[in-house]
Amino acid sequence: NAGVTQTPKFQVLKTGQSMTLQCAQDMNHEYMSWYRQDPGMGLRLIHYSVGAGITDQGEVPNGYNVSRSTTEDFPLRLLSAAPSQTSVYFCASSTAYGYTFGSGTRLTVV
Amino acid sequence: AQSVTQLDSQVPVFEEAPVELRCNYSSSVSVYLFWYVQYPNQGLQLLLKYLSGSTLVESINGFEAEFNKSQTSFHLRKPSVHISDTAEYFCAVTNSGGSNYKLTFGKGTLLTVNP
Q: Measured on CA atoms in the order A102, A14, A67, A34, is the torsion positive or negative?
């Protein structure tokens, strides 16, 4: 009964590097999303997906890419990391009645 | 578009005192409302939610929130707080219809309970 699993938990990147944050859910939810959390800003939506093969941009999509090839997985790709992408990233899986969040990835870009 | 305003960024209180964390929302459609709690260095946990029915909803650890449609508010209250309630609290809103469950968050209220 894992819920939403995010990996890695911590990551340090150099400016310009790329990486993929992994997210997997085992609840068969169609809707998945990625948020970033910054002090004093709350959680802001990066990208979301309403089902396999369907993705769309959220509030702060620049510098990030997503794909949804299966219901279970929704990876987030940083194309060329920048210090402004230093943040805590949360993946979520949901129905209309509530969200289940992963434990987060703390990313530092130096 | 929807928005959520949490009126206080920080709320310091003494242990066993009552507390109210304020949340107002804006939406042109019917909504579901949520409160999430984030303890230090942890992820987000659902505290309580309003979907329909009774406008007063309760959590298992003594928090309650009341949906007020006319005032577009969903304030969180607890009559007597504990040190362990120290955390950041986020109010959130989503559309109650359709298949897009986009969740919009407020900026959070840091509740600090002092002995």
A: positive
- Residue B107 carries which DSSP code? -
Q: Tell me the count of A-B CB pairs closer than 8 A.
A: 57
pLDDT in tens, B54-83: 889 999 889 999 999 999 999 999 999 999
Interface touch A31/B9, C-beta < 8 Å = no
Shortest alpha-carbon distance between residue B34 and chain A (Å): 8
Residue A31, token pair as written in the block? 């809707």
Dump pLDDT digits (tens) for A54-92: 999 999 999 999 999 999 999 999 999 999 999 999 999
